[in-house]
Amino acid sequence: MDPISAWVASKDRKIAVGEWGSDFFQFLTTNFAWFFDSLASVLTSFLNGLIASLLWLPPIAVIALIAALAFVLKRSWQLSLGVALGFLFILNQGLWKETVETLVLVVAAATASMAIGVPIGIWAAHNERVYRFLQPVLDLMQTLPTFVYLIPVLILFGLGVAPGLIVTVIFACPAPIRLTYLGITSVPKPMLEAGEAFGATKRQLLWKVELPAALPTIMAGLTQCIMLCLSMVVIAALIGANGLGRPVVRALNSMQIPLGLEAGLAIVVLAIILDRMARIGQDVRK
Fold this sequence. Notes:
By secondary structure, the protein is mainly alpha-helical. It contains 15 helices and no strands. It has helices spanning 3-8, 17-31, 33-56, 59-74, 77-92, 96-126, 128-143, 146-157, 161-172, 174-185, 189-197, 202-231, 233-237, 245-254, 257-285.
């Protein structure tokens, strides 16, 4: 190693990023453990309650309800039949419990991500200073390797379904924020000027002009959010979140090819169903 590189890489000159991070998380766990434990307990109870409720119902009844929801949204019996056949395939593979756990986790994470991301996207669209602050943060969130998310969440919340939900929300949030910002800022200025000419307030412009015009883009954010949540299923299983990711991890560890294929296909089928139903919602709102 050349002298300059050796000087830069010297242990005496190493920037103690790891130690600073460790001290920071030690501070959080020492002083705010009660908050993180309470939040994890509430989320775990809520998610486990939803999962238990769906598992209490006969699988055929749940499948029929979801297929009926698809029909109500789209008025398409072909899609409703496809949804039913997809879930029947999963049931046939013996992965119903894992699918219900994944479905609850994905729906809860997507709902939380949209509830957080849409208001922040609207705020950023109306405040350039906020967007300039958020832009590098969102870039970091979207480029940071997914496994890196697991370290702080695992330290603060431990193992279980609650940290799985939290890490999924963190991973999926940038999509609705960016697409909401894009949708609001892409509203044609003549539409805004027409609303102002009729005496609309800022709130009325938001609800009656900007949001209706930006809705297709926002709904595209929902579709991306659902896909991002599903992509975290396998990774979240590493920190104790049950679901279809668990048999995939088990299959990887023990080289069980049949189990891996079955769980992988179940994830694909669930992804297709959720994607089509999210697009249904977009079509209806248009």
